[in-house]
Amino acid sequence: xxxxxxxxxxxxxxxxxxxxxxxxxxxxxxxxxxxxxxxxxxxxxxxxxxxxxxxxxxxxxxxxxxxxxxxxxxxxxxxxxxxxxxxxxxxxxxxxxxxxxxxxxxxxxxxxxxxxxxxxxxxxxxxxxxxxxxxxxxxxxxxxxxxxxxxxxxxxxxxxxxxxxxxxxxxxxxxxxxxxxxxxxxxxxxxxxxxxxxxxxxxxxxxxxxxxxxxxxxxxxxxxxxxxxxxxxxxxxxxxxxxxxxxxxxxxxxxxxxxxxxxxxxxxxxxxxxxxxxxxxxxxxxxxxxxxxxxxxxxxxxxxxxxxxxxxxxxxxxxxxxxxxxxxxxxxxxxxxxxxxxxxxxxxxxxxxxxxxxxxxxxxxxxxxxxxxxxxxxxxxxxxxxxxxxxxxxxxxxxxxxxxxxxxxxxxxxxxxxxxxxxxxxxxxxxxxxxxxxxxxxxxxxxxxxxxx
Amino acid sequence: xxxxxxxxxxxxxxxxxxxxxxxxxxxxxxxxxxxxxxxxxxxxxxxxxxxxxxxxxxxxxxxxxxxxxxxxxxxxxxxxxxxxxxxxxxxxxxxxxxxxxxxxxxxxxxxxxxxxxxxxxxxxxxxxxxxxxxxxxxxxxxxxxxxxxxxxxxxxxxxxxxxxxxxxxxxxxxxxxxxxxxxxxxxxxxxxxxxxxxxxxxxxxxxxxxxxxxxxxxxxxxxxxxxxxxxxxxxxxxxxxxxxxxxxxxxxxxxxxxxxxxxxxxxxxxxxxxxxxxxxxxxxxxxxxxxxxxxxxxxxxxxxxxxxxxxxxxxxxxxxxxxxxxxxxxxxxxxxxxxxxxxxxxxxxxxxxxxxxxxxxxxxxxxxxxxxxxxxxxxxxxxxxxxxxxxxxxxxxxxxxxxx
Lengths: 453, 404
Prior knowledge:
The complex is a heterodimer of chains A (453) and B (404).
Chain A lengths: L1 H5 L16 H14 L2 H4 L19 E3 L33 H28 L4 H9 L20 H14 L1 H20 L2 H12 L6 E4 L15 E5 L2 E11 L7 E8 L2 E8 L5 E5 L11 E10 L4 E2 L5 H35 L1 E2 L2 E2 L4 H29 L5 H26 L1 H4 L5 H8 L12
Parallel strand pairs in A: 2-5, 3-5
Antiparallel strand pairs in A: 1-7, 3-4, 4-8, 5-6, 6-9, 7-8, 10-11
Chain B lengths: L10 H24 L7 H14 L27 H15 L1 H5 L6 H9 L2 H6 L5 E4 L15 E5 L2 E12 L6 E7 L9 E7 L5 E6 L10 E12 L16 H35 L15 H28 L5 H31 L5 H7 L10 H13 L8
Helix pairs in contact in B: 1-3, 3-7, 3-8, 5-7, 7-8, 7-9, 7-10, 8-9, 9-10, 9-11
């Protein structure tokens, strides 16, 4: 019976529960089981079983989270410092400020000279090289969203600058951009919603020279996931909380020293600061279709006890909604950057590639695809910029970011698809980066958390 | 500093246009859709009203007339929000009211936009107050406007024009027509010049009015020009045939009219979105911007997709106009705006009919009308495919000989 029940097809190996096996199917499945069994290993026909260690390139192995640094508790539990809002003189304008332009210049250089050359190997290794992370840290990117008085680099609210930076980084590589931006997401969240105590306890690490890996964990591995109804729960326990659940799309989970975890508290979603090494935390590699350089993983929380000061922001869901929106904004910016990378690449390719005695760009069916990429990409950029500039001015941007996400998800995916199509077979093999961009752009519509501007 | 809101200085104008559209255009919208070819007499009053407001400088032109490009040097690098932006914003509001009636607005024809774009200062002054229609298309020449067969031959102090023009918007009601004709067919597009032909010219005849799918309140005429004599000073711009400048006159006009047509599509589609959202809410479907579309109803998810596309089209339109205001070349952006707004206009208006079922399909509502009106906006002033061609050539750096 147990053998038969293990042969029930539903739910495993990508089979729907509606599948049934007939006699031939059962016989084939039995042969397949024998082929997979330990028996052949025992007679030395197969390599030794792999050790159960954490691997970013495999799932199924869980380890406890990294033993992180000790964040020394300091400061009072009153509202922390907040970045100033950007002021506008009410003029329609598509020109970045002087500060933003200077920042962009160096970030573009980083994207071109450091991220892009490292992208392919990082995708393969499911990890971001230390040099890349160090270079991003050197530019002060993790502190981009931190108020100046707490050691950050911008005078005003940084959503616009952050958006432009994310766009520029993703032109280099989206996966590495996500890896480089992840600590900044946590730091920005603490800057925006942290108490004075939380800011003074954690932010110095993010503006210093040894920035910890950190991850904003909102997503969960479930169908139709709605970030406003996380299945992860936070129950009140005395003054503190106990968290249970599983988070996905956790960037560099094995190295992370600090997590911001979304969980449901008293019926409303809320954010919690969770230090690595807290009992009950386990991390599991969760390599996915793309964004592999970001070292995506799952974070398992089993009876994780937190102190009262672990709650980040309010318990009514206001800070939480802002967090979800700002995170989606960052994903939009990443889509625009990678979309631009696709456009730049295919433009050159179709002009050089010859078929029927002339460059393929001389054919309308090819040229019009390129035109549509250019048109939709610019629309994505403008809608994203509009949401970002509203966020920077402290205005409501729920509608704008929703529309940006919709557009960037739909058209971004289309751009990834057409990017590969325009290169034909050359697009399908790893000789060109378009197949990676295809995989990365698929993420935009389903990601929650991880990055934030 | 990046900011994509309606400029503070134009907010009043947009509100005003919205009120005009709501209170003067909407009440007569269905009437003139049914009574095709009847003159919407209410528009005379509206045009007078707009002229009155224009005197105060409060509008940037509320019709399809467009605005002249200023070539004087710009002071410093201060970013300007000027007449181009004002114009697309008010046109969008008016087309939220009714696209066909906007196109029928006296003294605001597409020909006026050509005059604004290519006439010299003396002509600009002389033609002030005229209502000019635009005549480019011929029975055998649509998108390939360089193949125009209508000829203009110099004879003393006059040009003599012969040919046939179709799809002349406001060709019956306007008091003049900007006719595009070639001075020498051998010399290609550089020899094609615009002429201002007055409607009382005995050589010009309105042959018929078209019966159309949409924008039925706007008269679309076929005209013939038979030994039609126009004074040489009515050739708009320079009479010289300069091969290096190519089709510059028509192209300069298009750079100004394409963002306007994009604005028409944006306005028309907005009308569908506004009403559909209201009807959906009455049926219990409320759009939630925070929850993922797939976790809401299919109708809500569809609506989010439509609105996102619409927002993209609208911002591309604003970008093209903003560039013109700041004297930057905007051919690429104007074509991007028109391509995106044209297809989004159709998708939005047709999808809104679908969401509203037979209610949307019925003449009891205006949704079916907007779904008919929007189609022309993906065709005139350069079809979707022509815009894609222009964008592709610019992006890929190809000539018209390389990418045909």
